[in-house]
């Protein structure tokens, strides 16, 4: 099915907003204007954008330590996000949480999370709530390739499957967990193969192709919404910058 022009323009605008936000965040960090640490989403914009383009404001997502893109794609306010990075009281957490604690329940963004793998069970809870509410809402769990080696990953997929929850697990395989290549940590070419062990569909998609992500997630989200149970989407992608940035790292440069 063709993607409507209006949607293409909307997704391009979202991806560009994420890119500009991240570029500015890196610049402000390097200049010493932002305290703390930031994990840039540059390179992975198509994943959050393509998936969230299929969600309504009532659907809920759970993010990771690399969460700015998910926030923006789900409709969070970029001014409050940037204020949070600056440590200002106008920020999402009154400036006390920083990059990895941004949440906005009013748009269904249940939060970034500094603990790798900790978002998956929260998303399962959101999916259970959606099932109990019975109004056709879905939950989406975003997580990295590194998170797939955590126990929470397996527990979350198992529970979602036996309870037939309306959830889509979106694995952003950017080929690394910090400096560890995915092929060192995972004995499979495609993480999506693990979906079979939990009796749910597992699809691999080019995570750098916005239309491919949009179409694959439209199908996955549509099925979850219709009551078919959980779905696993592995988006092959790549982060362009280092794992994390902070003033402390900048100071270490020669
Ligand atoms: C439970 C836990 N273990 C280790 C860390 C340190 N840590 C932070 S990010 C990260 C790598 C995560 O890799 P991945 O899930 O692939 O996400 P990516 O950074 O590539 O987006 C690690 C090991 C952590 N925050 N939490
Ligand atoms: Mg990774």
End-to-end Cα distance, whole Å, is 52 Å
* Mean pLDDT reading: 96
CATH H level, superfamily name:
Thiamin diphosphate (ThDP)-binding fold, Pyr/PP domains
The main pleated sheet reads as: 5 strands, parallel
What is the spatial order of strands in the main beta sheet? 2-3-4-8-7
Number of strands: 9
Label the CATH architecture: 3-Layer(aba) Sandwich
Q: With helices defined by DSSP (H or I, 4 residues minimum), what is the helix count? A: 10
Q: How much of the sequence is in beta strands? A: 5-15%
In this entry the ligands are:
thiamine diphosphate, magnesium ion
Structural class: alpha/beta
Taken together, the total number of domains comes to 1
Unreliable parts? none
Radius of gyration: 17 Å
């Amino acid at each position: 099915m063709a993607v409507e022009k209006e949607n293409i323009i909307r997704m391009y605008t979202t991806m560009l907003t994420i890119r500009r936000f991240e570029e500015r965040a890196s610049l402000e960090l390097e200049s010493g204007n932002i305290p703390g640490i930031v994990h840039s989403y540059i390179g992975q914009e198509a994943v959050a954008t393509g998936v969230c383009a299929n969600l309504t404001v009532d659907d809920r997502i759970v993010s990771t330590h690399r969460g700015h893109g998910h926030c923006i794609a789900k409709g969070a306010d970029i001014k409050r996000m940037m204020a949070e990075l600056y440590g200002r009281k106008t920020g999402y957490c009154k400036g006390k949480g920083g990059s990895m604690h941004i949440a906005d329940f009013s748009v269904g963004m249940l939060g970034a999370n500094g603990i790798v793998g900790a978002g998956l069970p929260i998303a399962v809870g959101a999916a259970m709530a959606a099932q109990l509410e019975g109004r056709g809402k879905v939950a989406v769990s975003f997580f990295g390739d590194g998170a797939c080696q955590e126990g929470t990953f397996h527990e979350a997929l198992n529970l979602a499957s036996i309870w037939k929850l309306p959830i889509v697990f979106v694995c952003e395989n950017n080929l690394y967990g910090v400096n560890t290549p995915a092929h060192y940590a995972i004995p499979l070419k495609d993480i999506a193969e693990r979906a079979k062990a939990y009796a749910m569909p597992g699809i691999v998609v080019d995570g750098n192709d916005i239309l491919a992500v949009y179409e694959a997630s439209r199908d996955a989200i549509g099925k979850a919404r219709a009551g078919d149970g959980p779905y696993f989407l592995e988006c092959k992608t790549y982060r362009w910058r280092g794992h994390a940035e902070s003033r402390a790292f900048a100071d270490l440069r020669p």
